[in-house]
Design brief:
By secondary structure, the protein is mostly helical. The protein is 78% helix and 0% strand. α1 packs across α2 and α5 runs antiparallel to α6.
């Protein structure tokens, strides 16, 4: 297969030749790895970026149409870079969304403290009432904004003041699953105008 050009290999791949894809991927592996090394996110391993880049490369192979001005080399590496940049931006937005949710928690907690101090009623009864209201709020938000079970559990845990590590221990979720759930919550809140 050494003598085959990229375009020849792509034609073979498009008719189902998996061996041709493996060969083409090996041909570009060093370049893909070089691109992958430029990206870092705390919730991703280098291997994760490598897999995402390989999938983007595979998609580039399947969508490549030979044109006079664009080589496969330029097209494929552009697709890989674009996919990683898109993922990177998406993860940064999720981090911002989670920070906003945590800020909402701080505001709710400060209001709760003010209420408890101001009214000077029985603490146990008030805490139970506030907890019921919080659960009702979470249930109302969950129904109105169509939150899934994982999203609801993560939102409720964050509203209870738990950290990601504590949520992970309590529910057995990894940090990526928690981040993804809170990002979906943020998107739904934004969609319905609860937050900007």
């Amino acid at each position: 297969m050494i003598e085959l050009t990229d375009e020849m290999l792509i034609e073979r791949i498009k008719i189902g030749d998996d061996e041709a894809f493996e060969y083409l991927l090996r041909r570009y592996k060093i370049l893909i790895d070089k691109i992958v090394r430029n990206y870092y996110l705390p919730s991703y391993e280098t291997e994760d970026f490598g897999q995402i880049a390989s999938m983007a490369f595979h998609r580039a192979v399947l969508t490549y149409e030979r044109q006079d001005n664009a080589s496969f080399y330029a097209y494929a590496l552009s697709c890989v870079r674009n996919k990683l940049v898109s993922l990177y931006r998406h993860e940064l937005l999720k981090t911002e969304y989670i920070a906003e949710i945590q800020e909402m928690t701080v505001v709710m907690d400060s209001r709760e403290s003010y209420y408890v101090e101001k009214t000077n009623a029985l603490e146990a009864e008030k805490e139970a009432s506030l907890e019921r209201n919080r659960r009702k709020l979470v249930d109302k938000i969950s129904k109105k904004y169509l939150l899934g079970t994982v999203e609801q559990q993560c939102l409720e845990a964050l509203l209870d003041g738990l950290t990601y590590s504590e949520i992970s221990e309590a529910y057995g979720f990894d940090r990526v699953k928690i981040s993804n759930a809170m990002a979906r919550v943020r998107v739904k809140f934004k969609k319905y105008g609860l937050i900007e």
